[in-house]
What we know:
This protein is an alpha/beta fold and 400 residues long. Helices cover 37% and strands 16% of the residues. The protein has helices spanning 10-27, 43-53, 61-74, 85-95, 112-120, 139-149, 181-190, 242-251, 276-287, 289-307, 338-350, 377-383, 396-399, and strands spanning 78-82, 103-107, 124-128, 150-153, 156-159, 166-169, 194-198, 206-207, 210-211, 218-222, 235-239, 313-315, 322-323, 329-333, 356-357, 386-389. The chain starts with 9 loop residues before the first helix and ends with a helix. The chain binds pyridoxal-5'-phosphate.
Amino acid sequence: MNALDSTFDVGAQTTALRVVAAIANAIGDAPAVLHEPRFAGNEWQYVKECLDSTFVSSVGKFVDRFESELAAFTGARYAIAVVNGTAALHIALKLAGVQSGDEVLTPALTFVATANAVTYCGATPHFVDCEEATLGMSPFALREHLQSIAELRQGTCVNRLTGRRICAVVPMHTFGHPANLDGLLAVAHDFKLTLIEDAAESLGSLYHGGHTGTFGAMGTLSFNGNKTITTGGGGAILTNDEELARRAKHVTTTAKLPHRWAYEHDEIGYNYRMPNLNAALGCAQLEQMPEFLRAKRRLFGAYSAAFAGIAGMGLVGEPAGSMSNFWLQTLCLHEADPLLHDAILSATNDAGYMTRPVWSLMHRLQHFGDCPGAPVPVAESLAGRLINIPSSATLAAHAA
Ligand SMILES: *Cc1c(COP(=O)(O)O)cnc(C)c1O
């Protein structure tokens, strides 16, 4: 007997099977994983060039090239490639001045790396609610919360309840959908907070025509194997600030001073530099970005059409004023229904279509249980209603 038998619900089962049929209709036969990379371009050639040159590690032309191509693609003045998106967040927070004993505002609804990176600086994450329209941090909830618990003391935002400084705010563009950046930037300005965008999921997404990751003081990207483009493992920091870019490069490369032979380091640095081999893969992937974005948009269209006939749920679309990269396609139940949520996850995975619920909310994780936070009713509600469905760019062939 499995857990569902005791709560078997004919209505939920029937709907779950209709969901399976809708997915099949949109993308074709199972199996389909949640997200797989696609290597249809110059990947083999660039990686081979790397091997042939022997420059596979911390020196080589592909790192510089990947950084300048990322900057050109996003419109950021500078891009600094690093080993992964979590390291990018760690360094962005450090350069924003986050120190031991500080608090940093993050969404309750995010991947655990956003909050983990805060703790790497010795700081404490402080969780905020998100909004239904974007799935990102709510500027309204943020402002209301800060008005009730924080005050400015000599230009510094302080949490009156804990006495700690609140230094930065890190919105995240959930599943690629841009958060309400205008609203969040206004709150950050009023409360003297540095805004860092966790744009790990949103490379290629536009907010009012500008690339996500370029609105805050810094933005961070991930090129993990399940992201829109991959370098195997990798990440980057975007910024328009020359000094921040120089500092980011310096501390991610062991803070070594340039010299023909001497090993001189002027502060504690990190070995966070992206290897040339990974950057070679990244250069080839980035060339295909326009095609990936078209494919993902087509897939969204196919899913939207397939789900149009099923009452009580819909696909998460792009927020008004934004162009999403549609990294992960997401089914959203209109009402919280734990039985139906489980029935859909169970039926789709049984059928060979990999689907997943959204992450556990941060304040529910044991190691963040004591962290400060605002009430998060919207995140709590969404957590029981969202389901990610197969989203690879490769699936769009059927959708076309
Ligand atoms: C993927 C991801 C990260 C971390 O990226 P890694 O490259 O896996 O370290 C950070 N934040 C969010 C929201 C992510 O989805």
